[in-house]
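Thread title: Can someone regenerate the structure for this chain?

I was given the following input by a collaborator and told the matching structure tokens would be attached. They weren't. Posting the sequence so someone can regenerate them.
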Amino acid sequence: MTIVDMAEVLSALAQLDIDAVRAYEQAIGAVGQGGIRESLTRFRDDHKRHIEHLSAVIRALDAAPPEYTPEFKGFLIEGFTAIQNLLGTEGALIGMGNNEELTNRKYVEAYEMNLSPNIKELVGHNYHDEQIHLKYLRETLASRAWEK
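Best answer:
Regenerated them for you:
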């Protein structure tokens, strides 16, 4: 995989994380329960950290990271999340779960590529965070924790 190819892969992941931050911000506003809100805030902050780390590596590859603006797909993610948020905490969690499934798929795809070892390590670390997010969202939905 060329340096240009790696920069493109990382840029796509950074854009996905940018879109996730925006979606989490909407979901946080829709969630009333304090513990769930705190978890979503922590996950949003993980995505912000991913953006920072991915952007630093993209710059090191002499490429420009994506700007902090949603691309078309991001508008779809935001719109879907906004619709789900109208349903309150449960809807917000469903929307974020769907978003995290997409993010997990994209990170696994990137991890399976022929990346340099240091980039593979970064992608793997971010993917681990994404797995935690998805597991929490699935478990919280299954237990209906907001009703307790």
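The mean pLDDT is 88.
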